[in-house]
Amino acid sequence: MPILAAAQAPHRVAIRAGKLIDGKSDKPIENALILIEGDKIVSVTAGGTAPAGVEVVDLSKSTVLPGFIDTHTHVLLNGDITAEEYDAQLLKESIPYRAILAARNAHIALSHGFTAMRDLETEGAMYADVDVKMAIARDEVPGPRMQVATRALTPTGLYPLLGYSWELKVPTGVQYADGVDGVRKAVREQAMYGADWIKYYSDRRYHFEADGVLHSMVNFTDEEAKAIVDEAHRLGKKAAAHAIGSDGIAAALRAGVDTIEHGDGLTDALMDEMAKKGVYWVPTITVGMYVAPGRGGNWQKMADLQRENFPKAIKKGVKIALGTDAGGFDWKQLNQAKEFEYYVQYGMTPMQAIRTGTTVAAELLGWSDKVGTIEAGKWADIVAVSGDPLKDITELQRVKFVMKGGVVYKNEAH
Fold it and tell me: I want to staple 331 with a disulfide (CB 3.0 to 4.6 A). Which of 105, 178, 290, 369 is the partner?
């Protein structure tokens, strides 16, 4: 018998969706049939009957959506409201132990319906995010598809761990890099070890001044920041900037970054510039709300400012992609899908909010041809909830069904 004849035909599955929010239509499609072969969607039809001999998954009482995408996570971190919590993880937990917890965190994310994530630095765990991504891709452990940033960049001495005796060599949460040549070398090194994204810290020391604007101290010189972004782009990578104050955001936009992370101190002018340049804003509201009470100081005021800025950014056409900063809060304590709820509270329609964590997030990742919508040719990354998230966005925090690449990882739908 020829060897090829022994190869199995791809597994075929038909999902009967009571309501389908496909990520591109303005209204849900009633009674849709999604046909899947192997890891891809073959067809989506309203009504329709499943072909003979195909396994049928009955989600006729559920709302079906594309798998969610979180564009700002830290799988190797487990909450850092205080400096003590952060320091303890870097000082008392080995990188192998942290990687084991990261695999657990990835599994939690998948069970909550997140089938893809962008992990934006390992916080001192070196290149362990590349290992977690690889283990998931090879089906060794369950988790979302990942893009990773390995080690974020700051100039020397501007990121914890700080304040220890100079006689001790303590770990740092980032890679220190200085000067134009130094930052280019750091970017090349990270790319060599598997970084998909380059992340750098644009600012620190966030403070309000008499003008009412949230200001900050900029970390890199303009020449250094531009070199980071230029080298990333030259190597076919994208650049993300942690930028909280208006000064840090302005510096990151001058450098030509692809995404602004957090962005609490956005002003009207900066929003206009982001909209014009097509730079994505990843607001990470969940983490801001979570850490503000424990951190005190300006953090609550910064969270309030996010709420004021959000409807303005929507009106101005800024591209907003869902990102939670999970890891900044404990993965076991909070569901990342809480971020959708904040977006609706802050002025989005439920459909707009859903798009931030599906279609817009897919664009940010450069994966629009693979994920973000339920249509022919895309990966079969599909989730379902019992109720109607267009009426109650918190339904997204109660995912009952998760499929990634045609494989069912969770099915509690009734």
Answer: 105
